[in-house]
Automatic annotation (TrEMBL):
Name of this protein: (2Fe-2S)-binding protein
Domain (2Fe-2S ferredoxin-type): residue spans on this chain: 1-58
Listed GO MF terms: 2 iron, 2 sulfur cluster binding; metal ion binding; oxidoreductase activity
SUPFAM superfamilies in alphabetical order: 2Fe-2S ferredoxin-like (SSF54292), CO dehydrogenase ISP C-domain like (SSF47741)
InterPro entries: 2Fe-2S-bd, 2Fe-2S-bd_dom_sf, 2Fe-2S_ferredoxin-like_sf, 2Fe-2S_ferredoxin-type, Beta-grasp_dom_sf, Diverse_Oxidoreductases
Assigned keywords, A-Z: 2Fe-2S, Iron, Iron-sulfur, Metal-binding
Source organism, top-level taxon: Bacteria
The keyword Iron is annotated on this UniProt entry: yes
Protein source organism: Polaribacter glomeratus
Pfam family for this entry, one: Fer2
Keyword set includes Nuclease: no
Regions crossing the membrane: none
Amino acid sequence: MPLLWAIRDIVGLTGTKFGCGVSQCGACSVLIDGTLTKSCSMPVSYAFGKEIFTIEGSSPNLEFLREAWNEGNVPQCGYCQSGQLIAATSLLDATENPTDKDIDAAMSSNICRCGTYTRIKKAIHKAVALKNESI
Ligand code: FES
């Protein structure tokens, strides 16, 4: 069983989405022990004993990103946004002040059919600003 279905159907956390099912879209992104992972193609057995962080979780970087996402009205249809937020959380966990190039590289495996990429990039910069203001 892919981890995605264990998260959604057994645990009941439905924020993580099924998009392509073949590791191409990023809708199913989660963090496994802090590593960005596409849960649709990860066997659930791989996750035993590991920390799984989903969009239902909370971390300082995810909270700054949520605030920036809301301020910037980032989502359009919204379907991909939980995966986008998890990928952005992974980026901010690894990089304090990402450049546009860093953001493009980190977010390149998360597809948005509505084309919200410009708003996503702006919101990531805003989240960094919010974080820096809070220090
Ligand atoms: Fe997993 Fe698309 S549903 S990458």
